[in-house]
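Can anyone check this?
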Amino acid sequence: MLDVSSNAATVAVDEDRALVASAAAGSTRAFESLYRRHCGRVHGVISRLVGGQGARAEDLTQETFVRAWQSLRDFRNDSAFGTWLHRLAVNTTLMEMRSRRVRRHDEGDDEGLDYVGLQDSAGGRTALRMDLERAVASLPPRARAVLVLYDIEGWRHEEIAEELGMAVGSSKAQLHRARGLLRERLGESA
């Protein structure tokens, strides 16, 4: 039996390779195609890392693609372009998060949780997803970063610890903390 999804993935990787080669040679049209293909996923991970702050996520998405354009000649095709770009987006966001001075009230700010758990006209499933997004966005920055990288992006604790400059045990503790806060904010039944 033919696996259609793996064939599609192989075709996408091959198309990306051709576009990367063309963009590295100076084709802005090829880079624009790469941007269109990968913008959604890049913006998604950045948005989750910064807690849904729209303008900040937009700025970091643009910064990621500027860095990608500047670094295209260094891309060696050791991995898929999408994987490389995704890692660049995470690294760009984490560097920006490190450079910000986190104010004390950001660590425990529960503002914005007033509507968590309420039903909306779209129904329970959409309401739960929106509640989850709000609850994740309200987590303390380091706990949110560990949760997003581990549970959503599939990073290992060793990678997270290295990237965030913490011990592996601290990464595990932050994940435990984040999950506990989510359970508390969403209620045990969620």
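Reply from J.R.: I decoded it. The radius of gyration is 19 Å.
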